[in-house]
Amino acid sequence: MTTLTVHDDGKYLAIQTQGKSTRFHAIWLRDNAWDSETRATGNGQRLLALRDIPADTSIASAGIDGEVVTLTFAPEDKSVDYPLSWLMDNAYDTESNTGAGWTGAAVQTWDSGLMADVPVGDYAKVSADDRALASWLDNVARYGFGKLENGPTTDLSLMQVVDLFGYVRETNYGRHFEVRTEVNPTNLAFTGLGLQAHTDNPYRDPVPSLQVLYCLESSAAGGENMVVDGFRAAERLRAENQEWFDVLSQHCARFEYAGEEGVVLRSRRPMIELSPDGEMIGIRFNNRSLAAVTDVPFDKMDTYYAAYRRLGEIIDDPDMEVTFRLEPGECFVVDNTRVLHARKAYSGTGTRWLQGCYADKDGLLSKLAGLQATTLEAAE
């Protein structure tokens, strides 16, 4: 049974259900009304600014009929219906997450144990079946990366992958970039050396939040791709030494790229980025692009470098890595704000040709939410 009580002269509502009381302020409820005078019917955007709602708004009466809560607000004398489920889904009178570095329920951190269950989708299936696409995108969002198999091997096939969920983000590298490697090359520019795990473009603000790497040719031995969950690495650092976690999250590093004429890119962000309430929202780690660190006080610089070194050791730990080989027609999408990627070294003879591009995570999350909403509507 659900009951409603109004408190503090109508300043807030308490909903008692399943043995728990959840409170909502009157001004919050009025601002979040979904009637046609407050919200546009087509897109749900607000038609009113907060200044249009009386500052002394209060709840004059409250009632419930089944799953519908009806409130009347003073001084407007306006009645609004709310689905009980919507109110409970959007409740803010909850226990807050404590401590810096927490992650949301939709994020699952991982280590090398994920090797047995790498999130994989079939290109043909995700291209033709919205449910398969939603499942694959959900895994990319949850784990920070996902692999696609059985795709075409034609030039710029990676653009078709991006079309599944969003749009290419063009940079000074163009709409896409080529990754061509020859083993035992005549030109050292085409090296088969391995690369340390890193996030791309930390010198941009904002960074490209997704990267797509698509394999068109792979005849060389070795060269496996590797991914490391930066969030799990930060969690390990915090468990080992809270002071080290704090110094990397509370002080900015500086990153810089000036490798082309007319291009000077700079950013100033922490290696471990937290939201104001302590949620872990980003990792920037790229030793090649780290500029001089100047935003750490003198008496904390030794601690900062000890923390930076240890975070790198954790990232390099084989127990943290998931590796897989990309064959022609295969690709992977990686959350560049969270998951570090690398490449193992090559041996023997052969060539390797990949194409890469950047996109943004908001497009992927929007596509996923739309697919999930459509699936839910169909189920109802």
Structure description:
The chain is globular. The longest helix is centred in the last third of the chain and has 19 residues, at 361-379. A hairpin with a 4-residue loop joins strand 1 (3-7) and strand 2. The strands form seven sheets. The chain has a six-stranded mixed β-sheet. A four-stranded antiparallel β-sheet has the order 10-20-13-18. It is 24% helix and 31% strand. Helix 6 (230-240) packs across helix 7 (242-250), helix 6 packs across helix 8 and helix 7 packs across helix 8 (301-316). It has 380 residues and is α+β, with helices and mostly antiparallel strands. It has two domains: 3-89, NE0471 N-terminal domain-like; 112-373, Clavaminate synthase-like (Double-stranded beta-helix, 4-Layer Sandwich). Belongs to the gamma-BBH/TMLD family. Residues 121-358 form the TauD/TfdA-like domain. One of its GO terms (molecular function) is dioxygenase activity. This is Gamma-butyrobetaine dioxygenase. Its cofactor is Fe(2+).
